[in-house]
Amino acid sequence: MSKLFSLIGATFSQDMNVFQFKGKKMKSPMGTIIFGIFFMFIFGFYAEGLMGTLEPIGKGYVVLTLFLIATTILTLMESVYKSQGILFSDKDINILFSLPIDKKTIIFLRVLKMLVFELIYNSLFLLPALVVYAIHTKPGLGYYPIALLVLIFSPVLPTVIGSIIGYFVKFFSSKFAKKNVIQIVLSFAFVLLIMYISFSSNNMLDTIAQNADNINNSIVNVYYPVALCVNMLQTFSIIDLLIFFAITIIPLLLFIVVGGKFDYNVFFALDKKAKVKKLEVTDKTYKSKSQIKALVVKELKKFASSPILVINAYFGIILALVVVIGAAFAFDHFVEQFTDTSGIEMARNNGVELSQEDKEELEKRMNEFGEKAESYAGPALYCVIVFTSFMTYITANLISLEGKAINIAKSLPVSSSKILWSKVLASDVLVIPPLILCVIITAIRFPLTPIEILYSLLAAIIAPNLVAMFGLIVNLKHPKMQFSSEAEVVKQSFSVMICTFTGMFLGMLLMGLVIGFVSTPIVEFVELGVLLVVSVIFANLFGKWGTKKLNSINV
Hints:
Layout: H1 2-13, E1 21-22, E2 27-28, H2 30-54, H3 61-86, H4 93-98, H5 103-137, H6 143-153, H7 156-173, H8 179-200, H9 212-222, H10 224-235, H11 238-259, H12 265-275, H13 291-304, H14 307-341, H15 344-349, H16 356-375, H17 377-390, H18 398-402, H19 405-411, H20 416-445, H21 450-477, H22 486-492, H23 494-516, H24 522-552
Antiparallel strand pairs: 1-2
Helix pairs in contact: 1-5, 2-3, 2-5, 3-5, 3-7, 3-8, 3-9, 3-10, 3-14, 5-6, 5-11, 6-10, 7-8, 7-11, 8-14, 9-10, 10-11, 13-20, 14-16, 14-17, 14-20, 14-22, 17-20, 17-21, 17-23, 20-21, 20-24, 21-23, 21-24
């Protein structure tokens, strides 16, 4: 038992510093705690809003259902690509398998690491909902230990399922020479499929209050553990608690036992095979590149070679393209469904045939709604661009991912400022063109005014560039140069956490101002002016402070 605790301590000793704020005179988790409390307050505010709507009509339990399924989906999506780095691609996993340690123990420790981090992150979403529900319903004392058990064990099953899917994605992608590309495509395809199923499984166009029972029933029918959790929290049923433990613990044990019997060397062998290239001697002439161009190309290749970085940092861009393309092709269907839900479909369900006058009135209402919705296409596009930009922090990892190679980069006959700017430009190359494409698609499909096109294009250029500089500055301030897998940097570094929470807050703030003053484009231009001024300030930081910080990093 003491050996097991030693292994657990060794597994987490190099990762838990993500939850510590490091300064010259202090090392404390206070900064992370403040961030956590702040975002728990935000999600608690949303839970309070839902509870205020649903609790008066006796549907308060639906809040628990919605937050439980949301955390389940997030856990499942994260586990698909996180498992590929932590379970199947860790730098030291080959060494661990060569030690006299049971494979099942190693798999257990890796899964435990994933579960601990999922518990911490899921608590930001689920814990506020549990507290708000308790404040409104004033349950008995049995609610609190059951709520704690739900909080701890609800991520187990989606983590196991996501890890199994991650295994097959890693296995099949490893058989191809372009394994990273295959791995990225398969992971993106699965995550988008999950999102499509999640958003299309219920009719979310009516208000939640009007469809509370239907939404709740649809969710619990698709994912039974949610029904068990909600029922336990309401009735404190011991039988449901035992069934819940069986559904979550048994798959975990089977995954550990079966996973201990697999030959993970297949990944290492396939990786080596994919990397082998036949050397050929040719008389080909190569053109020289400028220093900054060569550095940008290097950063782009490095980004493409890391599936977990692409999936984590680039998913927002893919999602924005999907949303814009979907809106362009399915807007008329959306309008029809929205108005039809309150008219023809309702009448049909009640066995009533609408008269010709009613149908004409409904068609008139559809046209009016469609025209009004189209008039908001410009502000909506601006909000999508700004929020996507502030949630896409590619540069928040780039210094840390250099690892020991940072010393080699600094020894090259290239100035430190060029190294920093190459990372910013690489991020711009990856982010700005897709956002401009979103503007072009929207301008073709919807009647955007020249002013709306102008501020959308400016937002697609200014916001990503500002975010790229901010991410790099934060990474220079809080680099994580020691790591055993890229997943630790991409998912667990302090710089990523700061950028994610800051971007979420600023993105929501900027969108809120636009929505609040949707009738005038002045707000958009004022916001862009502020972002441009901040960008200039950040650019000046690169001149002295940035190069000084980069030169001070030694591994």
